Amino acid sequence: VQLQASGGGLVQAGGSLRLACSASDRTLNNYAIGWFRQSPGKEREFVTAIWRGDGSTNYAESVKGRFAISRDAANNMVSLQMNNLKPEDTAVYYCAASKTFYTGPSETGYIYWGRGTQVTVSS
After folding, report:
1. Of 51, 64, 88, 89, whose CB neighbour count within 10 A is largest?
2. pLDDT by position in tens, the chain (length 123)
């Protein structure tokens, strides 16, 4: 499965962006999907994830209340709505897929990774 993250860009602090994750074979509905991000000089970190079943979600504390993950089953996509963006949200954002119920923060729980999309938040 080839995943693709899109929707990144440059935004001012306090602004919003909406990222999308899609799969080349349109099978995204079969997986739990997670979003991770990596800033220069830092390790990749967990942002959020959504399960394939009941749509339950999991968020990192740093984005709770500002970011929202959702699944568009009809279009086989997962979106990440990012509001009230801060300069510290600047990173390359990646989506990843898990074939199990796992929606946790460990990268080892995800087996497919897409190319990232750059999000830059200016102060």
Report:
1. 89
2. 899 999 999 999 999 999 999 998 878 888 999 999 999 999 999 999 999 878 899 999 999 999 999 999 899 999 999 999 999 999 999 999 998 888 899 999 999 999 999 999 999
Whole-number Å distance between alpha carbons of 88 and 21: 22
The two tokens of residue 75 are 């279009």
Q: Give which of 37, 5, 4, 21 is closest to 71, Cα–Cα.
A: 21
DSSP state of 115: B
List 118's β-bridge partners, or say none. Answer: 92
Rg (CA), the chain: 13
